[in-house]
Design brief:
It is a single chain. The chain is an alpha+beta fold. The protein is built from twelve helices and twelve strands. The strands form two sheets. Strands 1, 4, 5, 6, 7, 8, 9, 10, 11 and 12 form a ten-stranded mixed β-sheet that branches. Strand 2 and strand 3 form a beta hairpin. About 35% of the residues are buried.
């Protein structure tokens, strides 16, 4: 009996304890980096990185005499332009340079200052590239690059909008980066080609969704200075730039001079044959007269030469390449044909000065090479191009037709 009572008390006690115990819960939590990651592993990685042998990078360069270079912005007679803007980690120099050119045109013609969105034009250009890719069944160039008249073309087709309305920069980011976006677009279109899935509506819809994810969706309508616009109406009513007033001047010997020809480079992906091809002496004469008359131009060509320095920010042609007196149509074409002149970079020519009987040109740049100096210096974001460099290596430019009326009159209608 005594044993029975003891066992009963034990069982009752255990039962009471069971009912009194609270059930624990579980959850998923975000684990922040702790001491191991923030201190120990950080130290290990930093030391390991410092112990790696550093591969020296060398570049064959012209030794430039800085005393002979007009390397101050104040040395130049300038047309108006906004301060240089970085294109970030993108290959959109064609758009930054030509958008800057059109901003200067708005100021020159209407005395208005308006920052125009580069990325809206880039967005529209990708749609057109994808559309042609489908129509050509994958036999059309699809890259990040384009030409200056690509901006003109997109203005005419899609209009434009203020930078304040559409920057395409995610919150907190200072510089654009398109690597992930372009890789995704490229992979998608390659999959379309490999699967022969040429549904135009579906392809464009998917391309838009990729662009929207990375850049944000551009507004269909927006308000600027109290008035509502579409991109087309903003171009026509506020910016008032007529795309038909702008022409492309080219100089290369492989096509007949005094004819409109195609500029045969990959970035002319839509095969525009609107380029006015002129002899080199005419080409240089246009530039010299235009800058002295207050015009600017979006100009493009090669920036991978030993005389092109990202240290001095100057571009020159060394005598060990070719003496100045020998730079002519043949020398220019020779380098284009053997591909030592390539269609590298678009820039905005905004001013000039004379030194020792030669022109130097002030170049507003969106690339990183012109930004290796003091960010607070007036020269940050500029290059200084000797006229020989332009003569040998810069292939073509966009300019207002009024600056070249006499030249255009010589072309057959």
């Amino acid at each position: 009996m005594k044993r029975y009572l003891i066992l009963t008390f034990i069982l009752l006690g255990f039962k009471c304890m069971t009912f009194a115990q609270v059930q624990d819960k579980s959850e998923f939590i975000n684990v922040a980096p702790g001491f191991y990651l923030k201190s120990i592993l950080k130290d290990v990685n930093a030391v390991n990185e410092s112990l790696k042998p550093q591969e020296a990078k060398t570049s064959f360069q012209m030794v430039q005499d800085i005393s002979k270079i007009p390397n101050k912005v104040a040395d130049y007679k300038r047309a108006w332009a906004f301060p240089p803007t970085s294109q970030g980690n993108t290959n959109t120099c064609w758009c930054f340079s030509t958008t800057s050119f059109y901003e200067s045109e708005v100021k020159r013609i209407y005395n208005k200052e308006i920052r125009i969105s580069e990325m809206y034009t880039v967005y529209c250009e990708y749609l057109e590239k994808a559309l042609r890719y489908v129509k050509e069944r994958g036999n059309s160039e699809f890259g990040e690059g384009s030409e200056g008249n690509g901006v003109t073309r997109m203005f005419k087709m899609y209009g434009c909008m203020p930078l304040s309305v559409y920057s395409a920069l995610p919150a907190g980011r200072k510089y654009h980066t398109h690597e992930a976006m372009f890789n995704e677009l490229k992979a998608f279109l390659e999959s379309v080609k490999s699967s022969n899935a040429w549904n135009e509506e579906w392809v464009i819809s998917t391309v838009k969704s990729i662009l929207n994810k990375h850049l944000g969706e551009p507004p269909v309508k927006f308000t600027y200075e109290g008035k509502e616009y579409t991109p087309i109406s903003f171009l026509k009513e506020y910016v008032k730039i007529n795309p038909d007033d702008y022409v492309e001047i080219l100089s290369y010997k492989q096509e007949p001079y005094w004819q409109q020809v195609e500029y045969k480079v990959p970035d002319n992906w839509w095969h525009s044959a609107d380029y006015y091809n002129v002899p080199l002496d005419v080409y240089m004469d246009i530039i010299k007269k235009a800058v002295r008359s207050g015009y600017t131009m979006s100009i493009g060509g090669d920036v991978s030469e030993p005389g092109f320095s990202r240290t001095t920010q100057a571009a020159m042609i060394p005598t060990f390449d070719i003496p100045s007196a020998y730079i002519n149509d043949d020398a220019r074409q020779f380098r284009f044909t053997n591909e030592t002149t390539t269609d590298d970079h678009g820039i905005h020519l905004v001013g000039y000065c004379e030194r020792d009987g030669k022109d130097w040109y002030l170049i507003k740049d969106s690339g990183s090479g012109s930004r290796n100096n003091d960010p607070n210096a007036p020269e940050f974001g500029y290059y200084f191009f000797h006229e020989d460099y332009v003569k040998l290596k810069m292939m073509g430019f966009t300019i207002h037709k009024d600056a070249v009326k006499d030249v255009l009159a010589k072309f057959k209608k």
